[in-house]
Fold this sequence. Notes:
Layout: E1 5-13, H1 17-23, H2 25-28, E2 32-33, E3 37-39, E4 44-50, E5 55-61, H3 69-74, E6 79-87, H4 90-99, E7 103-110, E8 118-124, E9 127-133, H5 135-145
Parallel strand pairs: 1-5, 6-9
Antiparallel strand pairs: 1-6, 2-4, 3-4, 4-5, 7-8, 8-9
Amino acid sequence: MISTVKINHIAIAVPSIDEFLERNRVLYSDFSKGPLIVNATQGVNEMFITDGNTVLELLEPASEASPIAGVLKRNRSGQLVHIALDVDSLETTLRGVEEAGGRTIVRPVPDVAFGGRRIAFVFLNGHVTELIERPSAAAKENDRNV
């Protein structure tokens, strides 16, 4: 059985985080803004913003080789990239996705944006979803590997 799932955030690719926030100030000026995160592993710069209930992840390419650069070539204004879900176990969830006909497009890796917790990306029924291992699950896995 797949672990308990909860939405963590919704990711949007933008050409520039600063420009996006400035141009959309009328909508997002009251949102709390986190620090700019340089994520060399993922090839993006990212910022999380929230209204206190929902979290948006703004992603800008760190270089032309960034995985979201292609998205922005197709839609220069940006677009929804993925929905991210917190899960108890990446392995269990990945097996469930594959059994449902989906595929893993990025195997589990630690991610700087989530304090080193592991993430993975899957493609299921035409959509990309990021899976983020909950802290308790990651800690248990690390304990097993010590």
